[in-house]
Design brief:
32 helices; single chain; mainly alpha; 71% helix; 2 strands
Length: 675
């Protein structure tokens, strides 16, 4: 258990990798082994860049990881503790694991735990335990801190910043530090940025003594149902859900034109619902799909881009979307089922864009599917592992029926343990169950510490009102114009998303930008989903596109070229958030939009995505000349824009392209027949 803990989360990826052909820097085929997959993930995923641990340290880490999982299951079943106590105990375990498992610098993974990390772990334990045991005393002081409280707050804030820097993102740690410095020196700021809420005492009162700041709602979300879904996905992966998804995807799409690339799209979309980390998704499925795509005839950059796009979009796919959606539900007070329904069409359009691009490229290159005898049987896959869908479907049903999220996740966990013994292929031993719980507990650390960090940003915003100040600046720049405001928010989301995880990007924008959109009359859910959507698209936007770089490492392609190909592939979906702002019916939010107009909007968006992809790829039934590519691209944008006149123009262009392509194909066939 201790020997495998640091690498167990990638067991399925390595199993696939060991069977897949490797592509080295020269493009030659070889074999991707477990070490290669592990090396790639360590480079592009901080969460998997763990250090070597001694036997004693491994026992400590496993104990805390197991405690987190069991604690979450217990509180989901029998009721959570008071907010601060629940969050403090969760953060205690997460911070101890963090400083013992993750080194201060990525190059130190082969070294043991540094002496100062033991001190950091002990200090984290002490600070969080202080908040836990003094909860009642803190309540009796009515949120007024003393010198001890202020000292503990400073130490804990420093530890959270350092933990965020080494595990999540240096950029997020730096942004949070800037907010904290502003809160401390707010009394001395000029003009509209001046605030009377500055100073250490006010900061400690607001950000440590009450459920704001460090122990705010983001950490509360992580300490309840988000972590439960991580445990749920950990159990599913241990049962072989990843193999089931891969086999079904291969069986359904492997024989079609360009089959391996379509397998990547379907498999990564499904795999993303049980694994929210884009880089981990790339390695989890890419070690299998990318070599298949290259063998089929796709260029390395295109193969890597397909996997990067498909893996990134997993956070958009209901029912288990990214952790940011759970925080969104808590933040704006809307049932998660509503968010899940609102994400259906955006997720469909995202993957449709990738799927259409793959189909057009395969037809353009004349690529065929895989032979039937090389494909797994969907029937056999359903027979051996199909019962694993029962917990998944049960969770969907309970969320739609608006049971609490934590209860739905708890039922899903219990059902996994109940149905997995039904088949030999999915039966788990006690050791495997323990491993899944340990692994699930350790996986919660990254977003736990990031939620504590962004909680301080929210705390500063609510303490000083700086969020309203920044929002007013956005309105001043845009002069109240909705489109310009949306464009500025998109740029903010993409820039921030290049260096920070989606959860952090969403929370910052939910504090600063989303209220501005609401002021302009956009529904609350639509405004927050707009920020969330672009926070995800930032992951595949050059120059910083980590999933594309991870995919390029597997494909043996140029990382920059792979990133730009992925950006082009996903470009049609950059227009989708604008559509559901101007046409709220696209998210089924009941804002007075008729069902007919909603259906028309969905259909024209699908046509628009096809036309934009056809223009970018230069193919619509046959290769397109440049002026037809430009025409198709323009018509696609017109179809996506929710206006009747533009829709008619787009449809007319599509009909023209199909008819003209048909005539050209007929003429070519006639020449061949005459010859």
């Amino acid at each position: 258990l201790m020997e495998n803990n640091n690498k167990k989360s990638l067991f399925k990826a390595k199993k696939n990798a060991a069977q897949a052909p490797e592509v080295n820097s020269s493009g030659a085929s070889g074999e991707i082994n477990a070490e290669k997959a592990d090396e790639i993930l360590r480079e592009f995923s901080k969460e998997d860049n763990t250090r070597s641990l001694t036997k004693v340290t491994s026992m400590i880490v496993n104990a805390f990881s197991l405690f987190i999982s069991l604690f979450l299951v217990y509180t989901a079943a029998f009721g959570s503790l008071p907010a601060v106590k629940q969050r403090a105990l969760y953060l205690l375990c997460a911070m101890v694991i963090l400083f013992l498992v993750y080194p201060a610098f990525s190059k130190n993974t082969k070294k043991g735990v540094a002496w100062y990390d033991y001190i950091f772990a002990a200090a984290s334990f002490g600070c969080c335990f202080y908040a836990f045991i003094n909860y009642e005393a803190i309540l009796m002081r009515y949120g007024i801190s003393n010198s001890t409280d202020q000292f503990v707050f400073v130490i804990l804030a420093i530890l959270v910043l350092e933990g965020t820097r080494r595990l999540v993102s240096p950029a997020l740690s730096l942004v949070t530090l800037v907010f904290l410095v502003y809160a401390y020196f707010g009394n001395y700021m000029p003009g509209m940025f001046q605030t009377k809420a500055g100073g250490l005492a006010r900061m400690a009162d607001h950000m440590f003594m009450i459920p704001e700041g460090i122990f705010g709602s983001p950490l509360g979300t992580a300490a309840t149902y988000v972590s439960l879904f991580v445990l749920f996905s950990s159990l599913l992966q241990e049962c072989g859900m990843g193999d089931f998804i891969r086999d079904v995807a291969l069986g359904l799409t492997g024989r079609s034109t360009g089959g391996p690339a379509k397998v990547a799209v379907v498999a990564s979309a499904a795999f993303g619902t049980i694994s929210g980390a884009a880089a981990a998704n790339v390695v989890g499925t890419g070690t299998f799909t990318i070599p298949l795509m290259k063998d089929c005839g796709y260029p390395p950059e295109f193969a890597g881009a397909v996997e990067a796009c498909a893996s990134t979009g997993g956070q958009l796919v209901p029912p288990v979307m990214g952790a940011a959606c759970f925080i969104m539900a808590e933040y704006i007070g809307i049932p998660y089922s509503n968010i899940m329904i609102a994400g259906l069409i955006p997720a469909l359009l995202y993957y449709l864009s990738v799927f259409i691009t793959v189909d057009l490229r395969s037809k353009k290159l004349g690529l065929l599917g895989m032979p039937k005898d090389q494909l797994p049987s969907v029937k056999a896959a359903m027979k051996s592992r199909g019962h694993l869908a029962i917990p998944f479907l049960a969770v969907i049903y309970m969320i739609i029926r608006q049971y609490t999220i934590s209860f739905a996740a708890l039922v899903g966990i219990i059902l996994v343990l109940v149905v997995s013994p039904l088949k030999k292929e999915t039966r788990l031993s006690f050791k495997q169950i323990a491993m899944a719980f340990v692994n699930g507990g350790q996986k919660t650390v990254s977003f736990g510490v990031s939620c504590a960090c962004v909680g301080m940003i929210i705390g500063v915003a609510t303490l000083t009102g700086v969020g309203n100040v920044l929002g007013n600046y956005i309105l001043q720049i845009s002069q109240g114009n909705l489109f310009i405001t949306l464009f500025l928010v998109m740029i903010m989301s993409i820039i921030m998303g290049m260096g920070m995880p989606t959860v952090a990007v969403y929370i910052v924008l939910a504090t600063v930008a989303a209220p501005v959109l609401v002021k302009l009359g956009i529904p609350v859910l639509t405004a927050h989903f707009f920020c969330f959507y672009f926070g995800i698209l930032a992951c595949i936007t050059p120059p910083v596109a980590v999933p594309s770089y991870a995919a390029a490492a597997i494909a043996g392609s140029n990382p920059s070229k792979t990133g730009w190909v992925a950006f082009k592939m996903a470009f049609p979906t950059f227009l989708v958030p604008y559509v559901f702002v101007y046409e709220p019916g696209l998210q089924f939010n009941g804002m007075g939009t008729s069902p007919i107009s909603t259906i028309v909007c969905i259909c024209t968006c699908i046509l628009g995505v096809y036309l934009v992809a056809a223009g970018l790829e230069g193919y619509c039934r046959r290769p397109l000349v440049m002026w037809k590519r430009v025409l198709a691209f323009a018509a696609g944008i017109c179809c996506i824009v929710p206006e009747h006149f533009t829709d008619i123009f787009g449809v007319v262009v599509l009909v023209y392209l199909f008819i003209s392509a048909g005539k050209e194909l007929k003429a070519e066939a006639g020449k061949v027949s005459a010859q």
